[in-house]
Amino acid sequence: KAGVTQTPRYLIKTRGQQVTLSCSPISGHRSVSWYQQTPGQGLQFLFEYFSETQRNKGNFPGRFSGRQFSNSRSEMNVSTLELGDSALYLCASSRDRVILNTEAFFGQGTRLTVV
Amino acid sequence: KNEVEQSPQNLTAQEGEFITINCSYSVGISALHWLQQHPGGGIVSLFMLSSGKKKHGRLIATINIQEKHSSLHITASHPRDSAVYICVAGGGGADGLTFGKGTHLIIQP
Questions:
Q1: Neighboring chain A residues of B102 at a CB cutoff of 8 Å
Q2: Which end of chain A has fewer CB atoms within 10 angstroms, the N or the C?
Q3: Mutation test of the interface with chain A: which of B10, B25, B36, B43, choosing the one with the most A Cβ atoms within 10 A?
Q4: Secondary structure class of A27 (helix, strand, coil)
Q5: Mean pLDDT, rounded, of chain B
């Protein structure tokens, strides 16, 4: 079966712009969670969407938002980009909420560069 | 909140050596992942395991649920194995997934 697909793989944006990243989970999976990895930092939790609702959010400013569609595909949006938003953004897909210890499958990530 | 500790943080070895990377977590889980990240590249999922041992080519992952510990082994290491290896523990906190800080592995020819 198809894996988790993130698009685009690479992206360059200018400071102040906004960006939208997409994550298509494995068919049948209802949870999509998002993570950020900045240079020198580990992967940090952004938020999780389950059945079209945001269930949990990490410690990130309101410029980071997301949504989930009825087919479980999720998008995350970052507005008013800052240089510090340059990072690898990773999504994970699972059948149930990740907090319930269900198996998670990872996308390859989207590398965002803000100039 | 689950705490995930990886060791070593950095490892440099010669081609052909047997490599072991360790991961310990503080809260019981039902699934643990090992990820591989090459410089400038994306993430590759190597293993997802909940018990025992899994093998894929020269890579072997083991987990001991009682001791809350997992290891990733690389046999006959090769320079192309040079990457950051990340351990991910499922569950145990509000975040759902807790990532280790990664082990930076360099295999020299």
A1: 42
A2: N
A3: B43
A4: coil
A5: 90
Burial class (CB in 10 A: 0-12, 13-18, 19+), A75: middle
- Bridge partners for A104 per DSSP: A94
Restricting to A residues 22-81, those with a Cβ less than 8 Å away from any Cβ of B are 33, 35, 42-45, 48, 56, 58
Whether A106 and chain B come into contact, CB under 8 Å, resolves to yes
Residue B74 — very low, low, confident or very high, per pLDDT cuts 50/70/90?
very high
HSE on the CB side for A25, CA within 13 Å? 31
How many angstroms from the chain centroid is the CA of residue A29?
Answer: 15
Give mean pLDDT, residues A50-62: 91
Mean pLDDT of A97-102: 67
Chain B nearest CA to A90, separation (Å):
8
- CB-based contact (8 Å) between A11 and chain B? no
User: Cα-flanking dihedrals φ and ψ of residue A24, to 5°?
Assistant: -105, 115
pLDDT of residue B103: 96
Gap from B102 CA to chain A (nearest CA, Å): 7
B39 φ/ψ angles, rounded to the nearest 5 degrees: -55, 130
Q: CA B66, CA A101: separation in Å to the nearest integer?
A: 16
Q: What is the pLDDT of residue B91?
A: 61
CB atoms within 10 A of CB B55: 12
Contact B31 A103 (CB under 8 A): yes
